[in-house]
Write a structure and sequence with these properties.
261 residues; alpha/beta; Cobalt-precorrin-4 Transmethylase, domain 1; Methyltransferase, Cobalt-precorrin-4 Transmethylase, Domain 2; 2 domains; 5-stranded parallel beta sheet; 5-stranded mixed beta sheet; 12 strands; disordered C terminus
């Protein structure tokens, strides 16, 4: 009997932010294929007897190449198993879920998406920094800060350098100094606020408040482990007044560095 693959968004890390559907699939699947960025709190919800397969990736190192992940999902489903393919955030926002779906469809394997709260939404809610705000940002754009095989980051910088739009940069820690320099070169002010958030919505959350001119140096002096994203724009300046505590704690963020611009 043919199996099925569920491409699941695990959300930003807090297990309370999982959808009911995601939790039901995780707890009833025959096997869970998971990424490195799925939080330990989410992993703890998987039944002890369920088979787990790690296919985690990090910058410059893929423990299991994407092509092999695609084949693995097909093979597991063709063996009649219900597969929970667990990804951080949402599978359709920098999660490569659609690439895996293409392979499944080509092999005649049934699949379904289970959406998740994005890292950007999680970081906004936990830090109190909105992604849009009247008078500060009329729109928001999600962009990648990393290219496959460490290729050149050839983004449309002129389009991105819009002071009325909030930029949320995923996977950009290694390139943030260059990203900031490009945005400044294309017209954004050097003192534009930037907020870096690592491990958003979890007790390990780390925040670094800076500016376009300072973010590269601040990150060099205070590196943040992945997953980390960057909120760039005037809305990030609201962090100084929001000051929500780190989730699950009664204290303020472990790290708060304000750039001098």
């Amino acid at each position: 009997m043919a199996g099925k693959v569920f491409l699941i968004g695990a959300g930003p890390g807090d297990p309370d932010l999982l959808t009911v559907r995601a939790l039901n699939v995780i707890q009833s699947a025959d096997v869970v294929v998971f990424d490195r960025l799925v939080s330990p709190e989410i992993m703890a919800l998987i039944p002890a007897a369920t088979r787990r397969i790690s296919v985690g990736k990090s910058a410059g190192f893929h423990s299991v190449p994407q092509d092999r992940i695609n084949v693995l999902l097909v093979e597991l489903a063709q063996a009649g198993l219900t597969v929970a393919r667990l990804k951080g955030g949402d599978p359709l926002i920098f999660g490569r879920g659609s690439e895996e779906a293409e392979e499944l469809a080509a092999a005649g394997v049934a699949y379904s998406y289970v959406p998740g709260i994005t890292a950007a939404q999680g970081a906004a809610s936990s830090t109190g920094v909105p992604l849009t705000h009247r008078g500060l940002a009329t729109g928001v754009r999600y962009v990648t800060g990393h290219r496959a095989s460490d290729g050149v980051l050839d983004l449309d910088w002129a389009s991105l350098a819009d002071p009325d739009t909030t930029l949320v940069v995923y996977m950009g820690a290694g390139n943030m100094a260059d990203i900031a320099a490009q945005l400044i070169a294309h017209g954004l002010p050097v003192d534009l606020p930037v907020l870096a958030v690592g491990h958003a919505t979890t007790p390990r959350e780390v925040r670094l408040a800076s500016s376009l001119a300072r973010i590269g140096a601040d990150l060099a002096g205070h590196p943040i482990d992945a997953p980390v994203l960057f909120i760039i724009g005037r809305v990030a300046g609201l962090y100084a007044t929001a000051q929500l505590p780190v989730p699950g704690t009664q204290r303020h963020p472990q790290l708060r560095v304000v750039g001098t611009g």
